[in-house]
Design brief:
The chain is α+β, with helices and mostly antiparallel strands. It is built from five helices and twelve strands.
């Protein structure tokens, strides 16, 4: 439906001092700090996790060596979605100069809507980390038992959900250090950044920035701070929906990924029958993950 003069009546009357409501600030693009970005030229993308080799065996004198097999572990698929929205102005509204007075504001409002949409869709990967989207290994992003080719498992979620505190963070970092590859070989995984909802920002500041241990009377050093255990510090992701959930981004490649199939484009055209002018924006992309070990998360207690 086109925006008509009746919907913008005050803009046509004398005595109008100012317009407001479309100038709110937006947060920076937070999703960019969490997702690897790649371009795509297909309707969907697939990424396959490979299994390497296990430990080398001891060869007895005169005996044959043991041969090992490599194989595919699982496949992750990214299906791109088209995101589009626009607005239309009637011919009469344009004649009365309403477009001239509102075009810049509505163009910014349209861009802000697209940015917000992308933040929500990116954050949905973490919001659904414990019960939502199932990955290539048949598990949600965060699980206690991601299966391995050798029959073992990796856990990127505490066995018992825990709130964010010094102890839970230390336990998470210890767990990350115990991860193995598909054949049971240790991998040198490290946390990079703590991602939290706005509800936990002050708690994170106390935990990571205090010189001494926070919340205790002990005169002990804050080991998280002194060892730079989380070198990227913390970031607030304002579109996380659970006030208790927290996530550690790790240096494992191929974790959270964003594929761009078609970047943002805007266009306009006129309708011959009505004289209305239409404006639209469109982009196509997908958010998801390949290797769940790119994240360690807890839904909170």
């Amino acid at each position: 439906m086109a925006i008509s003069r009746s919907q913008l009546l005050k803009e046509l009357l004398p005595g109008l001092n100012s317009l407001f409501g479309l100038e709110y600030k937006s947060y920076p693009e937070e999703w960019r700090s969490m997702f690897e970005v790649e371009n795509s030229d297909r309707s969907f993308e697939e990424e396959v996790k490979l299994s390497g080799f296990g430990m080398a065996g001891t060869k007895d004198e005169g005996s044959a060596i043991t041969y090992d097999d490599a194989q595919e572990a699982y496949t992750s698929r990214y299906v791109h979605n088209t995101i589009a929205m626009g607005f239309s102005l009637t011919e009469e509204a344009i004649e009365d100069n309403l477009y001239a007075s509102l075009s810049a504001r509505y163009t910014k409002a349209l861009a802000r809507a697209f940015q917000h949409t992308k933040e929500v869709k990116g954050a949905a990967v973490l919001n659904e980390a414990f019960t939502g989207q199932v990955g290539g290994d048949g598990k949600s992003l965060c699980a206690t038992d991601h299966p391995l080719v050798n029959g073992g498992t990796n856990g990127n979620e505490p066995s018992t959900p825990v709130d964010l505190n010094e102890t839970s963070l230390e336990a998470a970092i210890i767990s990350i250090g115990k991860w193995t590859d598909e054949r049971g070989l240790k991998i040198a995984a490290r946390p990079k950044k703590l991602v939290i909802p706005s509800d936990l920002q002050f708690e994170a500041e106390r935990i990571l920035k205090s010189t001494m241990r926070s919340g205790t009377a002990d005169n002990d050093v804050n080991a998280l701070a002194s060892t730079s255990a989380i070198p990227g510090g913390y970031m607030v992701a304002h579109h996380l929906s659970d006030p208790d959930a927290w996530f550690l981004m790790t240096d494992i490649p191929g974790g959270l990924k964003h594929f761009v199939r078609a970047p943002m484009k805007t266009s306009m055209d006129g309708d011959f029958e009505t004289g209305n002018t239409r404006y639209k924006g469109r982009e196509r992309y997908s958010f998801g993950y390949s290797d769940p070990l790119g994240v360690f998360g807890s839904p909170g207690a």
